[in-house]
Amino acid sequence: MAHYQQQLQERGLQQSMSRKGNRLDNASMESFFGILNSECFHGKGFKSVDELEQTVKESRLN
Hints:
- By secondary structure, the chain is mainly alpha-helical.
- It has a domain at about 25-60.
- The chain is built from 3 helices and no strands.
- The longest helix is centred in the middle third of the chain and has 15 residues, at about 25-40.
């Protein structure tokens, strides 16, 4: 975990940590990624990050 935290710090990002037992802190992002996964990615494989990024961009147009 230290490597992940170091990379965040190097990029000027702050890690989001919810309080123990508070499942609602991340509810909106969990919902967003759940919908994104079910509508765009379910059952698909991507050979690169570029291919994944292109799929996300194309799904915004539909």
